[in-house]
Every structure is written in C-alpha cells, then in structure tokens.
Specification:
about 260 residues, Rossmann fold, about 35% strand, 7-stranded mixed beta sheet
Length: about 260
C-alpha cells in the first residue's frame, strides 16, 4: 500500500458523542433516502460506528458495512447488539481496506458517507478505492459519496494553533466534560494533504483529568481532479450536489456530493 489510513483508536471512544454535537452534520437523511429508494441490499464503505448504517437498517434496509478500523467496528457491534432482532438481522459487518475489499456480490447502492475518500492520499489509492466501489455495483447501480469543497482562503490559517471545536458531557459519567480541540499541523500544497491532530481533554469540576491525542491526515480534491478519477475508475456522474439539500454544485457549494454509475 502506498499510504495508510487513520486507525481511530482514540477517536472511536468519542466519535458518537462528538458528532452528535455537530449541528452542521446533516447527511443522514440524504443517504437513508437513497437506501430506501434502492430498496436494498446496500453496501456502506467505511461504515464507522453506524451513524448512517443503523438508521437505514431501522427503515427495513438490509445493509452490509465494511470498515478498516477495528476500534470503530467494535463500537458499532456494541450498538448493533442493542437493536431489535429485526434490525440486527439486516446488518452485516466486515473489516477490510476500501482499496482492496471485495465481497463477491453486487448492490443497487454503494455509499461512502462523511468523506472517507479523503483518507485516500495518492492517486493510486484514490483510483483503487473507486474501483472497489465500482466492482460492487450491480446493473444500473448507484455509487454515492461526498467530500468537502476546499476552502483555500482558510487552508493555511492558524497552523500550529489549538482550536476548541466541541464540548459535551460524558454519557458514561455526567461529572465529566470532554472538549475536543483541533490543531492543524501543516499543509502539503503539492500533494493536496493537510495534517492535523485531534486533542481530547476530559475535565471534572474544571480540572483536567485526562488528555488523549490522535494524528490525522486528509487529502482534498478539486472538481476536475475528481472527474479524472471517475474516468480512470470507469465511472460517470449522474448527479452532483453542493449540499445535502441537493443545492447546485456551484461556487456556493460547501460539499461536493456525487451519484455515479459504471460506464
């Protein structure tokens, strides 16, 4: 492999609580609607802790999920165990790398919610990941995924500074407050990658009792870059949106959201 993916060994412990606090994270209805329209079965690549997968399964959709992170899958399995027997039967989990995973079956919908493609840091990895998705598309099937629209005006701001992003009460112990800080370490302009660290600090009564850190790297894409990758992977765009409310993919876009099919 030419690059590595993030392990999520620290983030997995805080993932659900942290992202439950993000008011701008509004992608679940979009992907669940696609799953309902497809009727199942659905393949979700990089399913994480089941933030999208479980709402789809509750709607009656058979869904198969693969993720590279054992810690994230462990959290997801705990969530699945708390669901009804009907939902549990609809959920199928696998550990695997999105660059090489092959399940040996096809689906009417393959989806990759919340930007996992941005963990693919080289062109080889990006094409390999898209080829994995294409390999699982049945006749007339749809691939759906999103990446963020790069904000070049802020890309190099606040490098080396800690920024408080989120704060929440620990669901395990209400006496604890957890704060997530973001620190941008550097930006690689040529390779289109930025490096950063998530810092989790836990407080009791205003006093810090624990600090945990996890380093990350994310690639970012331009629109022509993505169109070239689609062609290399044998895919074509059927729809593109600038938001999960299906706004146009134009200069006002905050996201780049694509629906694709095999050529």
């Amino acid at each position: 492999m030419t690059s590595t993916t993030n392990d999520y060994s620290i983030i997995s412990k805080y993932y659900d609580s942290a992202y439950a606090k993000k008011a701008d994270l509004v992608d679940v209805p979009f992907y669940v609607e696609l799953a309902e329209q497809a009727g199942g079965p659905v393949l979700e690549i990089a399913c994480g802790t089941g933030r999208v997968m479980l709402p789809a399964a509750r709607k009656g959709i058979e869904i198969h999920g693969v993720d590279n992170s054992a810690p994230m899958l462990a959290v997801l399995r705990e969530h699945v165990a708390k669901e009804s027997p009907e939902v549990q039967r609809r959920v199928h989990l696998y550990q695997g790398d999105m660059r090489e995973f092959r399940l040996g079956r096809e689906f009417p919908l393959v989806m990759i919610p919340f930007r996992p493609m941005q963990h693919m840091l080289t062109v080889d990895d990006q094409v390999s990941a898209l080829q994995t998705e294409a390999a699982h598309l049945g006749p007339g099937g749809t691939l759906a995924f999103d990446v963020f629209y790069p904000k070049y005006e802020v890309m190099w701001e606040k490098v080396g500074e800690e920024v408080l992003e989120l704060e929440w009460t620990s669901p395990e112990d209400p006496s604890l407050t957890v704060r997530r800080y973001f620190r941008k370490e550097s930006v690689d302009k040529i390779r289109q990658i930025f490096y950063f660290t998530f810092i989790f600090r836990t407080y009791r009564g205003g006093e810090m009792v624990r600090e945990e850190r996890e380093a990350f790297s994310l690639g970012y894409y331009t629109y022509p870059h993505l169109r070239a990758l689609f062609r290399l992977a044998g895919l074509e765009v059927t729809a593109g949106y600038g938001s999960f409310e299906k706004a146009p993919l134009d200069n006002e876009a905050q996201q780049m959201i694509f629906l694709l099919r095999k050529l």
